[in-house]
Structure formats: C-alpha cells, structure tokens
Design brief:
Structural class of chain B: alpha/beta
CATH architecture of the largest domain in chain A: 3-Layer(aba) Sandwich
Largest sheet of chain B: 5 strands, mixed
Number of helices of chain B: 24
Mean pLDDT of chain A: 88
Low-confidence stretches of chain A: none
Number of domains of chain B: 5
Radius of gyration of chain A: 17 Å
Structural class of chain A: alpha+beta
Strand content of chain A: 5-15%
Shape of chain B: globular
Number of helices of chain A: 6
Helix content of chain B: 25-40%
Largest sheet of chain A: 4 strands, mixed
Strand order of the largest sheet of chain A: 2-1-3-4
CATH architecture of the largest domain in chain B: 3-Layer(aba) Sandwich
Oligomer: heterodimer
Largest interface: A-B, 46 and 59 residues
Amino acid sequence: MTVNTKNDRDFIKTADEAVDMYHSKREELIPILMRVNQQLGYIPKEAMEHISSRMHIPQSHLYSVASFYHMFSTQETGRHIIKFCESAPCHVAGGREVFEALKEALSLEPGDTTEDGKWTLMTTSCLGVCAVGPVMMVDEDIYGNISPNQIPDILAKYE
Amino acid sequence: MAYFRSHILVCNDPECMEKGSMQILETLKKEIAAQGLSEEVQILDTPRIGACQLGPEILVYPEGFHYVNITEKDIPFLIEEQFLKGRPVTNLLAPEKEAKAAELGEPTTKEVRVVLRNCGKIDPANIEEYIAEDGYAALAKVLTDETPDSVIQLIKDSGLRGRGGAGFPSGLKWGFTRDAAGDQKYVVCNADEGDPGAFMNRAVLEGDPHSVVEGMIIAAYAIGATQGYIYCRAEYPIAVQSVKIAIQQAHAYGLLGENIFGTDFCFDLDVRQGAGAFVCGEETALIKSIEGKRGEPRPRPPFPAVEGLFGKPTNINNVESYANVPQIILRGPEWFASMGTEKSKGTKTFALAGDVKKTGLIEVPFGITLREIVFDIGGGIKNDLKFKAIQTGGPMGGCLPEDYLDLPVDYEELTKAGSIMGSGGMVVMDEETCMVDIARFFMEFIQDESCGKCVPCRVGTKRMLEILTRICEGNGRESDIELLENLSLEIREDSLCGLGKGAPNPVMSTLRFFRDEFEAHIFDKECPAKVCRALINYSIDPEKCVGCTLCARNCPVDAITGERKETHVIDADTCIRCGICKQVCNYDAVRVT
C-alpha cells in the first residue's frame, strides 16, 4: 500500500470512486468504507461526510460502522502498517517475545504511529496461517515463523 | 478435459510468492513448452503445500515428489530429469520432516477426507476439475430427481449437524426456513472463521470452493431461496478471490443464475466481506454486517430462519456444513450416518496447532479420541516435552487435561467435559505453558472482541481480565478464585449472545482442571510453568557459563555483567525478564526460577 500526500480533493475523489464502484447501495457500505480505507490508509472525516451526503446515510451512522470494525481506522496511519497476530496458536509458539521485541524496536504501543509517520503498529485477529506462527503482516506481506532477532531485518526491508 | 500424464503444483501462498513462486511458475511453463511436454504435463498454482519457509516449492503428481528451494536455473535440469528421464532430483526434494509440517499432508490411517477430499488435489480455479470429481452431479440429481422436501429429508436422515460449532441439526434448520412465511428467502454461508487457530474453512474455500457453492445451491433449492451470500472475513483475501472465481465460473456454466440445468429454479450468489470483527461470526451479528451495519448481535427468537437478512427468512450454515451436502446427496445419507457416534455423524475438520510435532489440518470421523488426534495424527508433543492440555472450541472453548485424552470427540462428550466442539480449532499445550496465563490470554481476546452491546459481557469480561492480570502479575488476592467463579456464572447466565455466554469457558475449565496453578500464583507467588514474568527470576549457572559475553551483548537493559571467559551475573533489579539471554545462550546456562 502506498499512501501519497493527501488533501481534501483526494479524499473526495477516493470517496466518489468507492461509492461508484458499489453503486451506492446501502448494504455495500462496508465494502465502500473498506475501499477508502485501503486507498488512504484510514477513513478521513472529509471522506465520511462526502459518502454520507451521496448515500443519504447520517454521518453518525457512518461513524458508528467505521469505528466498529477493527480493520477500519478513523485516524491517520503511518506509511507502513504492521499487524501482529495476537491469537493463541501464535502466542503459544512464542509470539509474546516477538511482540515485545517489535514494540521495543519501534518504541510503539499497539494502535500508535511513530512520530516520523513511518510505522503504525496494530494487532490483528487470527490470519489463519497458524501452522507457521508467530505471524505478522507488514502492509500486504506475511511473515511466518518469526523470532525476536529477525525483527530488525524485517523492518529494514521497508523504506 | 484434456488428459495429462503429470501435474506440477506450484505453491502460491504469500510466503512462497514473496520468494518468487510466480516467476518459477512462468519459467516452468516456458521450459515445459521448450522440451515439448505441453501436451503431457499440466502446471497449476495451488495455495496448499505448506512448507513455505522452504519456498518456492512445487509438487509433482502422480509421484507426489515435493521439491523445495527451487531457483529458476534449476528448472531445465529438473524437467529433463523428472519428465524425460523419469527420476527425481534428490537434492531438491523436501527433507522428510519438513514435508510432514505441511498444512495438509497425506492423510494418516486415522483420517477420512470428505470435506477436504479435493483440497490440494484439484485446481480450485478450474471448475472442470471439480466437475471431473463428480462436482455438480449432486445438484443435477437434486434438481431433476428430488423435491425440496425430499432433499430436506435426506439431510435430516444423514444426521448432519451445524459445523460452525453449535451442532444444530442442519436438516431441521432447512425445514424451518422452508416452512417460514415469505416470498423472498435467503441462504447465507458463514465463512467468518474468526476463532484463533482455526483455518479449516479457509482451506476449503481456497482449495475446493465449488463444493461450498454447490452445497449452497442445493440448500437454496430446498428452502426456496433465490439469492445467497457468502460472508467471508477480510483476513482471508485468497479465499475471497477463490470464491469469486468459483462463482463466476459457475455462472458461465449455467450453474448459477436463471433456469439452472434448464429447470425453473433460479439462484444467484454474492460474496460479502467482513472488516475484522470476531462477533460477526455470530449469526445475527453477521446478518447486520451483510446489511452494512454495525455487527452487533440481537436476542433470539426470532431466529434467522423466520426473520433474518433484510427481515426475510434466512438459512445460515457454516462452510463445512455446506461442503458436506453434495457428498451426502451423492453417496446417500446412510453412508454419511455410518461414520461417527450415535448423535454426531460424519467427519469433522480440525486445525491442529500449538505444541504438537505435526501441526496442520486434519479431518477425522467423530468418535476418535483426543489421544489419537494428539499422538497418532499430531505425532506427539514437540521437543519430547510432556502433554499438559488441549484447548478445543476456540476462545469460548475449554482446556482439557491429560485425564481426558481418551474422550471420544463429539458434540455431547466435549460439552460434558466442560469444553465445546466449536468450529474446530485445537491448540495443544506442553508442560511449559502456564494455564493462568492462557486463561488471561483468552480473556484478553474476548474482552477485546466483546461488541459492547450488553453489560454482562462488556463489563464482566473486563473485570475478569483485571483479576487474571493481577494474578499473573503476582498481586492475586485470596478471594480472587471465588470472585472469578461468581463472575463466570453471571456472565454465562445473563449475556445476550453466544460470545458472552461462552466468554467464561476458558477460565472455568482451567479453574476446574488446573486450580492448583491458580493457587500457586495467588498464595505462593509462584508460576509453576515459569512463564509469568513477575513471578520468575533469571540467573546464570556458573557451572555452565563459559563467559562468551553473548548474553551481555544482547541484553536490552544491560543487566548482565561479567568479564570475557568468566562467569556472568544477572542483576535481578535491572532485569526486565525478556528472556533474550536464555534464547541466545549456546550453553544452556541461563536458568529460570
């Protein structure tokens, strides 16, 4: 995922594209928000306002949906998003130590973004690749069988 | 369908793709053509080989040779040896033990493949391969020879029960939806496989999506639905893609849409994606999510069979339930009912994870014992440690100790033992696992995923988590065990949906079977498994330490001091108990007490 410089016009354009893609059907709200979130890294207020007026759905309702699902973010995120699997099989396979090393390496707590806007650290529910736990995802890339000392190498791959 | 003497399967799992498996695929195609084998050898990509840490990897059938760490320059030689000279290239073959780590390997003698029969064997993106394995024959039979009522009777006779976890008889459910008043009815497939450690449905959707599509069309015919939805979690992008391709192809073959098989029956299917909310696996929450709303559950009744999606009668089944349907129709309900126990018929897929030697997917007939699963199929505990517990049923399931290893696996027996069947996650734990930490861990998950609608679940799980956390941190109070028990009963009694009602299960089952560990944490301030950081200390064994300085150089807080070639010492006050020293030590000199 590459997120370029953002301004209001991009927000509106992205929102328009997403709504058009799904024919502004009410029950397609989640795919629409997903599209915006994928394009921009989060769902900005401006995009939500625009979707609201185009789909005739109250903003409060949009916000209630956008804030309910873990995969949607209503706050600006970093250039790269790390999703660490916090599920039992990864935990049992040594995930806790890896997660500590990751938090230490980034000086981040889950949900936060580094000051330089490079990294956002999140936890994710099970990615279903438990046979190679512990697992984490950086943007769209999945890393399995990770140990604490691999963390610096993985992070170094990203600009 | 063209006949090929050999098939090459190229793994397209994300890890292998990152290592260049798609380039390997292209090069294979070019080389096969260059050596004049295009008519004889078929090349396919598949999501399921499973030794991705050694990727890129390929499988060659019918011999079943598994090649790993392939580079583009190996390919001309590989193809010449394998297909022209007929002998394997031994130095590229997967090492024996890695092949066993495959997510879905060859079935052991205890396994029976019904739902997983096609996974890894056919190209999921080619409907003709599914049809060649009797695919859509069940649908043809149903549409031409059976009435909706007789289909429902067949499913009832088979004894199929909901594979999502609750085990409600599927035929009965179909009957309710058929009998419900209303012109518009829906069928929905619950593919929101959110239980941590469970990936059975992902394997089916990625490896054999048409079996689910066919099962849904049959269900739609039986209940009188014209529209269906597959609700798949967004954490499974490959599964979503695989299902979308399957739907497109079924359309192109006239198996979906208007007048299927030339009959009056019309049915269409769409995919809807979740956005990361565990509670959406609960059927009423799932319905809300398909409608584009917050995925919050509502009280039942009315059940979805009467008032479901958009307020219309809706039949919701799990992926595995639908995938069983075509086989039941083709082979007959008697065949299906001949497998399993008195009340649980057929087979069940499980995802075996945790501390067993062979993790991965299995499919076994009901009635198999936990011991057979852990030791015969799973190969026993890793590193030859002792078995401690097996967690079944996902986060709302329970942990069963060694005494229960001979328990036959079926819906009733697991519930009686204090756990549940759930959707099929099984996490095996060895003696180095702290059960209090595990209970805390599951509570953290549940508390995080509680949707917040009802108070017992929202507030109760938070309080339980606080209590468990303080026990793990060495601040447990004398009354904490009783408090946990009381809270458990109240949350179970008063919560709205299955998530809340099941929330206390991990705590109740660990309290029942591992009470002494809770007591050790609270009264003796000790963690018997040496996991809870506040209750353990790291020190260096002077007998074993050679003074290599490796631990001191790796310690993040400089808590380790010592001269080269002299015994090192850990300062307990500075130490943050991260365990890195123990990991890096080559002489096993770091002790945990």
